[in-house]
Specification:
Elements (H helix, E strand, L loop, with lengths): L3 E8 L3 E9 L8 E9 L6 H4 L4 H20 L8 E4 L1 H5 L3 H12 L3 E3 L2 H12 L9 E6 L4 E5 L2 E5 L3 H8 L7 H16 L2 H7 L4 E5 L1 H11 L6 H4 L3 E3 H13 L2 H4 L13 H14 L4 E4 L4 H5 L3
Parallel strand pairs: 1-4, 4-5, 6-9, 9-11
Antiparallel strand pairs: 1-2, 2-3, 6-7, 7-8, 10-11
């Protein structure tokens, strides 16, 4: 068996994820996961408004990538061969290319900035759990800057995300009713574009949610104090479950949200917008239930 140590990085608007696995070429599943790490770096801080990466955001991300390079080397991998993908914030930032040149010099990681369509395709490939039927599955990936909805017949990328819409609409702590309703209206307006796409999928399509918003919601729903992928990957939430969580997040301050089970400090301020996107996706596009997957783009990247 020609198993080798392979690695991928998913660098999004809010988080940076590293997957290191022993993965035999040609297989659709890893032989053994050596590391699966998520760090909140908020690289997309202010990008929606300023269209450039902020200096402190770049430094946070660079510090994270230095640690990832060391970890990968310790596990027998090579940073220069890792599959490194950057998404929404890099597409929108004028200084993104300069930043990634610095990343190459200091870490060896070579990033490729992918389009929303490619992000959707790779996320669908990586987001499904073993046993899920691709023909009837729809993956929703709620990122910090964009949201992708993908089926086996294609997908859509929308310019709404937990960081982007928090900065744009949910600016007080706690949020006001007016801010909440304005944010909901903006989410619904984006989703209305997908009504005909949704109708073509048929009534029996199964929604699968990936990425940090979804796993944080599942952790809260399950009462998990520590991240447990085996339990999150079996979670199924109804529209009512998601709506209840949205209402609970709405009245809490960021500090009070940190008291919820499994809530990360770097996610507490943007989790409401992310939860609203999932809730409205289920309402507007008529999905009664949602499965949760801890996988996503980083798994799909190793299948490219």
């Amino acid at each position: 068996m020609n198993t080798s140590v392979r690695a991928s990085i998913d660098l999004g608007t809010n988080t940076c994820l590293l997957l290191v696995a022993e993965w035999e070429p040609g297989r659709t599943e890893p032989d053994r996961v050596l590391a699966d790490v998520s760090t909140v770096v908020r690289l997309g801080q202010g990008v929606d408004k300023n269209r450039s990466l902020a200096p402190d955001a770049m430094e946070r991300t660079l510090a994270c990538l230095r640690k990832y390079a060391s970890r990968l080397t310790e596990l027998g991998g090579d940073p220069s061969t890792a599959v490194c993908l950057a998404t929404s914030q890099a597409r929108d930032a004028a200084n993104g290319s300069d930043f990634f040149e610095t990343v190459v010099r200091e870490t060896g990681f070579r990033f490729r900035v992918i389009s929303g369509d490619e992000e959707a395709r790779v996320t669908f490939s990586g987001g499904l759990l073993p046993g899920m039927d691709p023909a009837r599955s729809v993956v929703v990936d709620i990122g910090g800057g964009s949201t992708e909805l993908i089926s086996s017949r294609g997908g859509q990328s929308l310019d709404m995300g937990s960081v982007r819409f928090t900065e744009r609409y949910l600016q007080s702590d706690p949020v006001t009713d007016e801010q909440f309703w304005n944010c909901q209206a903006a989410i619904d307006a984006q989703l209305e574009k997908l009504r005909s796409w949704r109708e073509a999928l048929g009534a029996h399509a199964d929604l699968v949610a990936v990425a940090g918003t979804a796993t944080a919601i599942a952790a809260e729903h399950l009462g998990l104090e520590q991240f447990d992928a085996s339990r999150i990957d079996t979670a199924a939430l109804s529209r009512g479950d998601i709506h209840r969580i949205v209402e609970e997040l709405k009245w809490r301050t960021v500090k009070e949200r940190l008291e919820l089970p499994g809530m990360e400090p770097g996610r507490a301020d943007v989790i409401l917008a992310g939860a609203m996107i999932l809730w409205r996706t289920m309402e507007v596009l008529d999905f009664a239930h949602c499965r949760i997957s801890t996988r996503g783009l980083r798994y799909g990247a190793l299948k490219i």
